Amino acid sequence: MLAWVLSPPFKKQMIKEGRCEQESNLFGTVFPPLTMVEIASILKQKFNVKVIDTMASEINIEQLKIKFKSDKPNCVFVNTTTPTFKNDLNSVNCLSKISEKTIFYIYGIHAKYFSNKIKTNKNTILLNSMPYKKAYELIGLKNQNLNNFPVPSWDLVDLKQYKIPIKNKPFLLIRTSIGCPYSCTFCTAPYYYGKNYEQKTAKNILKEIKNGLDLGVNEFLFYSEVFTLKKKIVMELCNTLIEKNIKINWMCNSRVDTIDFELLNTMKKSGCWLISYGIESSSQKELDMCSKLIKISQTKKSIILTKKSGIMSIGHFVIGLPGSNKSSILSTIKYSNKLGLDFAYFYLATPFPGSELYEKLKLKQLDYSKINYKSNLINENLDLESLQKFAYKYFYFNTNTINSIYKLVKISGINAIPLLVNQGLNMLKQF
Ligand code: SF4
Fold first, then answer.
1. Could you say which of 32, 44, 170, 430 is the most buried, measured as most Cβ atoms within 10 Å of its Cβ?
2. What average pLDDT does range 88-95 have in this prediction?
């Protein structure tokens, strides 16, 4: 019996990992396909499995059809996102004509949201839950909790295809938890993963680090909605890395209200070099309106502490949140620059199906392929696209950037300079 786990071809390279559904444009990378190899590791207990990630290998639909014709797999798990959904369904329809016995399970937030709203042919199923449940069902087991998942089958993909752009080194994702107890209105995480925060033990995370090291990778992104939510586990993980002298470099995401200096200091000593924070806005009113449950004073304090610990930081901002206007957006842009962050992303507020923002706006005839954080879909009175371009220029073209480049070169070595120049030029082309 043969199973495929597939990310169908698309006109652009995309990040397609749960709530992260966006073009891989700014720093030019696609994520190693974590959920795809997790599904593969479950299915492997009963199937031969192939993982085909066209986001990285750039196979076109004609080449895919040829492979499919020769394999005729029994089932295919298809990774979809909101902007790629129409295209992914077209690819599935093309393939299903070649082998009518193949069952296609399409998974992702868009599939879940529209599972009982879109009609598909009888062999194409939109999964109304995360894909693990169906994978376990196919091998005759009931759904397992995160700590019983097998180690992801990274051996089924070519790891050389996935590199951290500013370092040009292969990296892996390690899922350290599933779920988010918060309810930020622009985010799909609570809808997709649920509000229950299921934490992987430090022992199991270490097992996956070891697997990565065995595959020759020592750069990791700890993939979690809020990696630092359970301080005790993070401390245990970091202290073990330090005590056992396990040399890795790692990144994570966090919330500014879940860190303190003791934690940051230990994280730094264990190899953490970069933290992503969802900062969103400089306006307390906007933060409150989107249920962020964060105070501006916490943000300032935590970025200072992060800097003091020697860890670099990325801030994520949302332009055009409900309650915003041109002046509050400009204040957020100026604020992004004053905080002492090393990098920043500026997203346009985007109504992804599954988010509260989508439910509130109830937009009619939304073109889902335009859901890309760069199209203004919610506020016709403001030129959000121009404000977004201005934000990038304002943040990156100033003397702070020279400081961040200096820190990066210290971390990555002199070889990072041509890569940084290249990425700077890419950025210039876009904005
Ligand atoms: S904290 Fe908010 S933005 Fe972050 S994953 Fe949870 S709901 Fe989403």
1. 32
2. 97
